[in-house]
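In response to the reviewer comment on reproducibility (Comment 2.3), we provide here a single inverse folding case reported in full, input and output, so that an independent group could reproduce the run without further information from us. The structure tokens appear first.
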């Protein structure tokens, strides 16, 4: 009872309108607080995007602690870098997204490392290019890395950052995971490669092979002459105990639904 002798609404079981209203308020408050406390996507403190004046055959990108610098990158290439996929996994978009190059310079508020900087790049592309993308699954020909007989190398327990250097016919790898090897081979071979070795840890190794040697991992159109030495897949099998097996792979692609050219900064 209140001081006027009327029954006060209570948050107990019942069917009165007042009881239902009382029960719903905490839910509304909880939903509002949840929406308000949802973290905003990471973004750069300052960023510049301009049409590139570099030569069409010259492009680069690199990161430093808290900084991202990219030269003469197309939007499709920017999307591939931001979402950590190979170029062939970016589909759609207007025609200019595959040809027009852009220079990007961006600075984070704090000492952000490369994974964080690439997340910020996703947000930057959405803001400046009005970029909208979605993910799809697609079956395509590729290779899986298997080690059914066991690896022939042992994990590298030394401290330090992963290192990957590749040139024609040579790879020097230090402290890399098998998943990283699969990603690197995807870029090297131009076809999807996935890790199915189930090997844990990080590994160091040097591989040398004859690029002209016939290989199941290299398209016939890119091969010339007879074999004068071991092929890449032969060296990987002999030295690492890993086999490249050709198979159909379900891969994820990034589809550009919408993009507009950015305005001058």
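Designed residues, in position order:
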């Amino acid at each position: 009872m209140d001081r006027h002798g009327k029954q006060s609404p209570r948050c107990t079981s019942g069917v009165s309108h007042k009881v239902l209203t009382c029960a719903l308020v905490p839910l509304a408050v909880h939903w509002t607080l949840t929406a308000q406390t949802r973290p905003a996507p990471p973004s750069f403190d300052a960023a510049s995007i301009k049409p590139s004046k570099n030569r069409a055959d010259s492009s680069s990108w690199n990161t430093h602690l808290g900084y991202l610098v990219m030269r003469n990158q197309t939007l499709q290439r920017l999307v591939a870098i931001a979402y950590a996929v190979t170029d062939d996994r970016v589909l759609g978009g207007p025609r200019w997204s595959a040809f027009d190059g852009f220079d990007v310079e961006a600075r984070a508020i704090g000492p952000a490392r490369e994974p964080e900087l690439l997340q910020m790049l996703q947000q930057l592309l959405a803001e400046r290019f009005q970029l909208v993308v979605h993910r799809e699954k697609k079956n395509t020909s590729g290779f899986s890395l298997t080690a059914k007989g066991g690896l022939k190398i042992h994990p590298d327990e030394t401290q330090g950052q992963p290192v990957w250097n590749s040139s024609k016919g040579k790879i020097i790898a230090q402290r890399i995971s098998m998943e990283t090897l699969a990603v690197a081979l995807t870029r090297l071979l131009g076809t999807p490669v996935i890790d199915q070795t189930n090997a844990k840890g990080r590994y160091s190794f040097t591989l040398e092979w004859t690029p002209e040697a016939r290989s199941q991992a290299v398209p016939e159109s890119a091969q010339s002459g007879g074999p004068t030495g071991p092929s890449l897949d032969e060296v990987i099998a002999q030295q690492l105990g890993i086999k490249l097996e050709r198979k159909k792979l379900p891969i994820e692609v990034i589809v550009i639904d919408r993009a507009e050219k950015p305005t001058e900064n």
